[in-house]
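Hi,

Apologies if this is the wrong queue. I'm a grad student, and the batch job for Protoheme IX farnesyltransferase from Sneathiella marina produced an output file that my downstream script rejects. I'm not sure whether the problem is my script or the file. Here is the sequence I used:
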Amino acid sequence: MSDTSVLKETISTRAQTEPARVGDYFALLKPRVMSLVVFTGLVGMAVAPGTLHPVLAFTALLCIAVGAGASGAINMWYDADIDAIMDRTQARPIPAGRVTANEALAFGTALSVASVVLMGLVINYVAAILLAVTIAFYVFVYTMWLKRRTPQNIVIGGAAGAFPPMIGWAAVSGDVSVESMVLFAIIFMWTPPHFWALSLWRDIDYAKAGVPMLPVVAGREATRKQVVLYSILLFPVAIMPYFLGYAGIFYGFGATILSGLFILGAIKVFAKKDESSAKQLFAYSILYLFLLFAILLGESLVKAVV
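Support response: The file is valid. Your script probably expects a header line. Output copied below for reference.
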C-alpha cells in the first residue's frame, strides 16, 4: 500500500472517531479567503452601472460567498493528502480527522450547485455562468490540473480568485464589460507576487508535499525576480480604473502610492533575500488589495450620496 493510501486511510479512521462540529464545516469554506472574495464582489457591484435592490444585492453576495466556500471545500477534499503533510494545513478539518473527505466533497458539491442555481434564478444568468466558471476553474483547472503539475499554477490558477468583482458587476449590469475585466486583471496580476511572497518562506513545506511552487522548482532567486516583475506589471493595471473614468482622483492617487510601495517591497525582497522581507510583502499584499478596492468602494458610495 502506498504512503498516500495509508495516509488517506488514517485520516478517514480518525474522522470516524471525532464527530464534526459546525465550526469544522465552516472551516472547510476557507472563511479568510471567502471574506476577500465577498469584499471584491461587493466592490464590483458598487462600481457597476445601475442599481440592485438591497435584498437582491445581499442574495448575490451570498451566492458569491457560498460558491467560493464550496470550491474551497472541494479543494480540501482533493488536497487532503498533501494538507496532512504541510505544517500550514495540518490543522484543517480533514487531515485533523474531524470531517471525512467524502463529507467535504458532498458538502462542497451541494453548495456549489445551490449557489449557481440561486444566482441564475434570482439575479441573472450572466452572473450565474460566471460563478459556475469560477468554481469549475478553481476545482478542475487549478486544484486538479495545475497545482501539482506546474510552477505556473498560481499564475494561471489565479484567475479563479479574480472573477468575483466581475460576478458582482454582472449581477448589477447583466453583462461583462472592459471595466469589470480590468478589476479582474488587477487581482489576476496581484496573485503571483502575493503567493510567491508566501512560498519564499514556505518553500520547504511545499517541497515536502511535492507541490511545484516556483521557489521549489526554479529556486528562490528566480522567484524573487518574478515577484519584482509582476509587481511592476501590476502598477499600470492597478491605475487603469482611473484612466477609464470609473474611478476618481482619490483612487488614482491611492493606487499610485500603494502600487509604488508594493514595488518597493518587492525590490526589498530581491535585495535582502531574507524571510522577514518576504513575510512583510505577503502581509502588505493583502492590505494592498483591500485598500485598493476600499477606495473604489468609498468613491462609489460618495457618488451615490452626492
